[in-house]
Amino acid sequence: LVHRVVTIDGPAGAGKSTVARLLAERLGWRFLDTGAMYRVVTLAALRGEVALDDPEALDRLAARLEAAFPPGRALLGGEDVSQAIRDVAVTRASRFIADCAAVRARLVAWQRAFADAADVVTEGRDQGTVVFPDAARKFFVTASEVERARRRHRELQAKGSDTTFEAVLADQQARDARDASRAIAPMKPADDAETVDTTGLTIDQVVDLLHRKVLPSP
Ligand code: C5P
């Protein structure tokens, strides 16, 4: 690898993307939210009424997708879809995209291209295991199931959603179970990843902790 890469993998709702974005800002590196890529393909499939269980159709869709990911945002054909990709319907349907080997291969190539161009903090499920096995530093960021569901529930409430905590928890459990057991690129810590449990920590505390580990003071 020409550029430096820090990978942050872990289950849903662990705060990975906020932490990765802030860590990238501190380091002056680029931030890559790979979940947003899977979500953009999912949104495009739902909008285009592409059959989610048809891998060839999904691959054709991914091949002609015009997406861009400026820091913290997602664009589809020039439209800002940063909010739309967080919809519950998109979150639920994203598993079909995550299971599609051909689409994964495209997104992995895309992710590696980011790291060819700049130092990156990248966040997802398979970044340390599959996409960047040679990354300088790998973290598996997690938190207790209940705390993660609480955080996500609060976020959804703040956006005016009336989803219950129980529904958020059930969705999260189903998604984690699928992500951990999928045949290709399952979610798991890389052998050389350090697991960081963020239960009870604030975002700032987590960013500080990772920052110290990435750049130990002399
Ligand atoms: O992280 P986020 O919740 O945005 O990811 C949405 C879904 O995309 C995940 O549940 C997972 O199935 C898929 N994903 C993946 N590999 C990644 C990132 C996300 O399979 N590197």
- How much is the average pLDDT? 95
Rg calculated over all Cα atoms: 17 Å
**Number of DSSP E strands:** 8
Helical residues, percent: 40-55%
Shape: globular
Identify the strand order in the major beta sheet: 2-6-1-7-8
The main sheet comes to: 5 strands, parallel
- Distinct bound molecules: cytidine-5'-monophosphate
Low-pLDDT residue spans: none
- The total count of helices amounts to 9
Percent strand equals 5-15%
N- to C-terminal distance? 24 Å
- By secondary-structure content and strand pairing, the structural class works out as alpha/beta
Binding site for ATP: 10-18
Main location: cytoplasm
Domain Cytidylate kinase: 6-212
Organism: Paludisphaera mucosa
What does this structure look like?
The structure is a single chain. Helices cover 51% and strands 14% of the residues. It has 218 residues and is of the alpha/beta class. The chain has nine helices and eight strands. The site of cytidine-5'-monophosphate (C5P) has 14 residues, from helix 2, helix 4 and helix 8. It catalyses: dCMP + ATP = dCDP + ADP; CMP + ATP = CDP + ADP. One of its GO terms (molecular function) is kinase activity.
